[in-house]
Amino acid sequence: MTDITYPTELTNGLSRDDIIARLKERLDDARFEHCLRVEKTSRKLAKRFDEDIDRAGLAGLLHDYAKQIPVTEYRQVIQNEGFDQALLAYGRGIWHGMVGVWFIEHEVGITDPLVLQAIERHTTGAPTMTPLDEITFVADFIEPARKLDGEVAARKAAETSLSDATLIELQNTLTYLVSTNKVVYPQTLLTYNALIRQTN
Ligand SMILES: [Fe+2]
Ligand SMILES: [Fe+2]
Q1: How high is the pLDDT of residue 114?
Q2: CB atoms within 10 A of CB 38
Q3: Cα–ligand 2 centroid distance for 64 (angstroms)
Q4: Residue pLDDT, tens place only, 107-147
Q5: What is the pLDDT of residue 132?
Q6: Each residue of 55-112: pLDDT tens digit?
Q7: Of the bound ligands, which one is closest to the alpha carbon of residue 120?
Q8: Is the residue at 2 inside a domain?
Q9: How many A from CA of 102 to the centre of ligand 1?
Q10: Is the pLDDT reported for residue 20 higher than 70?
Q11: Does the pLDDT of residue 51 top 70, yes or no?
């Protein structure tokens, strides 16, 4: 049971239960439960850093809405809805943020630009992230089920600094991608460069 509710002007009239019903249509149980944990973690971070708790919670709840949408549906949307065709060379790992927001807008009906931007950036980051973007990005990585060393270190950093936690997460993600022979989406590198310049 939870007592979380969202202001309807933020959800275009949808209740949290309506949104949860939509999530369940697109996600298996494990991924859905992860979304609930990221929602909770996002709200906690927003409270801690005095940011918008409802926007943070809503972005956390919906961030992986599009994670399991079939590749064929993604390809159609990328080809027909004005996306950069270079995206076709990537996969759902990248798409579910950048293109996922298209599905969230059209299937769920959430249109708040700040919420959508936070979701759009949650896998790649962006060189100029807002605190809300960083909350979604970090909450995904430090929700309670995350137990790896890098995740624990980011959780610790997030007690005092969102950008420190963001940098730790990026370093871990890049290290993982490179060490497992995976491509790096250019924006992820640009995000890393921007953050490292800020800290140096
Ligand atoms: Fe994700
Ligand atoms: Fe996630």
Answers
A1: 98
A2: 29
A3: 5
A4: 999 999 999 999 999 999 999 999 999 999 999 999 999 99
A5: 98
A6: 999 999 999 999 999 999 999 999 999 999 999 999 999 999 999 999 999 999 999 9
A7: 1
A8: no
A9: 14
A10: yes
A11: yes
Look at residue 145 and tell me if it is in a domain. yes
Quick check: is 1 in a domain? no
**CA of residue 35 to ligand 2 center, whole Å:** 7
Instruction: Identify which ligand lies nearest to the alpha carbon of 139.
Output: 2
CA distances from 13 to 16, 18, 19, 187 (A): 10, 9, 10, 34
Amino acid at 156: K
Q: Which ligand is nearest to the CA of 123?
A: 1
Checking if the pLDDT of 1 tops 80, the result is no
Q: Alpha helix (H) ranges present in 63-179? A: 71-80, 92-98, 100-103, 113-120, 131-142, 149-157, 162-179
CATH number at residue 90: 1.10.3210.10
Look up the domain containing 17 and give its range: 8-199
**Whose atoms come closest to the Cα of 100: which ligand?**
1
Pull the structure tokens for residue 18.
């309506």
Q: State how many domains the chain has.
A: 1
Cα 62 from chain centroid (whole Å): 8
